[in-house]
Specification:
The protein is mainly alpha-helical. It has one domain (about 1-45). Helix content is about 90%, strand content about 0%. The chain is built from one helix and no strands. The chain has one helix spanning about 5-45. It is rod-shaped.
Length: about 50
């Protein structure tokens, strides 16, 4: 019996893709927060 059967490969790939999606989501969230911070900073800077 081989360890690299279809079931194990699928399970591994699903786990890998889930982790990659989670990392991608976190990266997008950080970018959005940074955009908001920069926008807020620029608004306060221009109002002074």
């Amino acid at each position: 019996m081989s360890r690299n059967n279809e079931k194990n490969i699928k399970k591994h790939n699903d786990k890998l893709h889930k982790a990659q999606d989670k990392a991608k989501q976190a990266q997008m969230l950080r970018k959005e927060k940074l955009k908001q911070i920069v926008k807020k900073f620029n608004d306060t800077k221009s109002s002074e």
